[in-house]
Design brief:
heterodimer; A: mainly alpha; two-stranded antiparallel sheet; 72% helix; B: 245 residues; Rossmann fold
Chain lengths: 342, 245
């Protein structure tokens, strides 16, 4: 069946409606920043808060992106994602502790090398643990939401206990490398050096995720699988294999996020994953289940709002993210950019 | 035509507690177009889904090109050379037409790697696909989505094309386009299994026909014989061809 000359009659196709790019959710980010400017009052303080918010948002995005794709692709509710974050954060204490010469140096290049080494180790370990987690914990409960919630939460508790057994139950300090402490002055605005690093790393990882999803066949399969996994299988692709790949990649990203989040907090406790878990679920619900782009916007909104309200009204900051989620869902009940249709 | 490319023998399928197929026997001759007819709920879609491994047969044998495929997972069935267009078309509406086609072309990593001559041939069958190549598939009309679904199924050569109700809800002009496309496909000796409710469409295309009722094949033979026998049509399908012309 090759390509013979056609004799088929051509039906005259109608014109299509214009392609409408939905920019409104994306505009929420600058809109929120602009609204905060007069409220904060001081431009340098606003710049400091904005950069801090973007840094926090990008770290949360790194952690949340894998989880939202896992949900979109296989309809899996993984409440155990936090264990990969905790693993990454604790491995950072070990790796950075073992590279004291590098982290104690004032040389920023040495500091960054140590952080990237910690990220690599966290990525590899979280990815490997993620593969085992998928096989042992997730696979037996495909298609059973209640069991997924119970068993993945159980998996996280077991993971936390294992972390306590290895690193102990107490908080472990995770100081920033010497050269990354303090702030740089841009005009009158003081920007913490580490937050700039987090922004650069976060944007690089966002760029990588965006490239994979939009420019590779694997990304195309992921985007298609989120919409209709049965049809992807009918086209001859093994979606389970793809899912395992996404799960491992998502776990590895959570490990990297754990390193960055641990350094952001400068202290690590075994419950660090459970704490961030809530934030991540808020982000993926705001963004729209299954949407990496939606998670990106949601994470930036969460990061910015947390920093602005932390400065303007610390008591409101305690529930600002929940408030944001409620408002977004009242506006768009499926989230900002929903993909998974279930 | 030489022998059956696809054969179902005594196939039973359960969906949960429901027993849908009750021993389906069906042969799809190589190189021909077989139409599966029957009223709503007769088990036609379940038969196609069972062939594709989307639901597994609880009993019986599904053989394709001589090999038993009843227990194979769906991707393995597809990789044997079976293209499937489901009743809901299975279009990825957030992806562009180009991306939908690139996905269906398993041998190509990107749309640029799709066999150009083959693609031009598909464009010849469905010119709207070329026109809307870079548009999101979700913006296409119902007829254009059906064209995309069929175009996607034939973007690479396959041994068997299975299509579930290609004319459902389509305007007459689009049905004519679809008819021409299937005629073109028939001329390339592609084996086609078509589920269809539109008897007039089926009559003009089909070489062989099987009629289902209550999860069983109740009639199998040539389309010419069924088209000529109004009383048989009346008995099997509860209609007369004249009523559909």
């Amino acid at each position: 069946m090759n390509a013979p000359a056609t004799t088929a009659a051509a039906a005259k196709p109608d014109a299509l409606p214009k392609v409408r790019t939905d920019l409104l959710p994306l505009l929420l980010v600058p809109a929120l920043a602009l609204v905060a400017l007069p409220l904060v009052g001081s431009f340098p303080t606003w710049v400091t808060l904005t950069v801090a918010g973007i840094a926090m948002g990008l770290i949360v995005f790194i952690i949340a992106s894998g989880l939202t794709l896992v949900f979109g692709l296989m309809d899996i509710l993984n409440f155990g994602h936090g264990v990969f974050i905790a693993l990454g954060a604790f491995l950072a204490t070990t790796v950075l502790g073992g590279m004291a010469d590098w982290t104690g140096s004032q040389n920023i290049f040495a500091n960054l090398t140590a952080i990237f080494a910690a990220m690599l180790v966290a990525m590899a370990a979280a990815g490997a643990v993620g593969m085992a987690f998928e096989r042992v914990i997730i696979r037996p409960v495909y298609g059973q939401h209640l069991k997924q919630i119970l068993i993945t939460m159980g998996g996280m508790i077991v993971g936390e206990e294992l972390i306590k057994a290895i690193w102990g139950p107490q908080a472990i300090p995770l100081p920033l490398p010497a050269g990354l402490r303090g702030a740089v002055l841009i005009g009158d605005a003081a920007i913490e050096k580490y937050r700039l690093v987090a922004v650069v790393v976060g944007l690089a990882i966002f760029g990588l995720i965006f490239w994979v999803l939009n420019r590779t066949k694997a990304g195309l399969l992921i985007r298609a699988g989120v919409q209709d996994r049965e049809m992807v299988e009918a086209l001859g692709y093994r979606i389970r294999r793809l899912f395992v790949g996404v799960f491992v990649a998502g776990s590895a990203l959570a490990g990297i996020g754990g390193v960055l989040w641990g350094l952001f907090q400068q202290s690590v406790i075994p419950q660090i994953g459970a704490q961030v878990n809530i934030l991540i679920f808020i982000v993926i619900i705001i963004g729209g289940l299954g949407s990496a782009g939606g998670s990106f916007v949601g994470a930036l909104l969460v990061g910015l709002l947390a920093n602005y309200t932390g400065f303007l009204a610390p008591k409101v900051a305690l529930f600002s993210n929940i408030l944001l989620m409620v408002m977004v869902l009242l506006w768009r009940p499926q989230g900002l950019y929903p993909v998974a249709k279930r | 035509m030489s022998g059956a490319l696809l054969a179902l023998e005594g196939v039973h399928t359960h969906i949960g507690a429901y027993h849908i197929l009750h021993g389906v026997d069906l042969e799809v001759p190589r190189g021909g177009l077989t139409v599966l007819l029957g009223r709503n709920g007769a088990g036609k879609t379940t038969t196609l889904r069972t062939i594709m491994g989307l639901w597994h047969a609880s009993r019986g044998r599904v053989s394709f090109d001589g090999a038993d495929i009843a227990a194979l997972p769906t991707p393995d069935v597809a990789r044997l050379g079976i293209a499937y267009v489901p009743e809901n078309m299975g279009i990825f509406s957030d992806l562009t037409v180009e991306e939908n086609m690139a996905l269906a072309a398993r041998e190509a990593r990107t749309a640029e790697e799709i066999d150009r001559a083959r693609l031009e041939w598909v464009f010849g069958l469905f010119p709207a696909m070329k026109k809307f190549w870079l548009h999101p598939a979700g913006l296409l009309s119902g007829g254009q989505k059906q064209m995309l679904a069929v175009a996607r199924a034939i973007v690479e050569p396959r041994k068997l094309l299975i299509v579930d109700e290609p004319t459902k809800g389509l305007a007459p002009a689009i049905i004519q386009n679809m008819m021409s496309a299937f005629r073109e496909l028939k001329s390339t000796d592609t084996t086609i299994l078509l589920v269809e409710q539109n008897f007039n469409f089926a009559r003009q295309l089909g070489d062989t026909v099987a009629v289902m009722d209550n999860g069983r094949i109740v009639h199998a033979g040539t389309m010419a014989a069924l088209a000529e026998d109004e009383s048989l049509q009346q008995r099997l399908l509860g209609l007369s061809l004249a009523a559909h012309q």
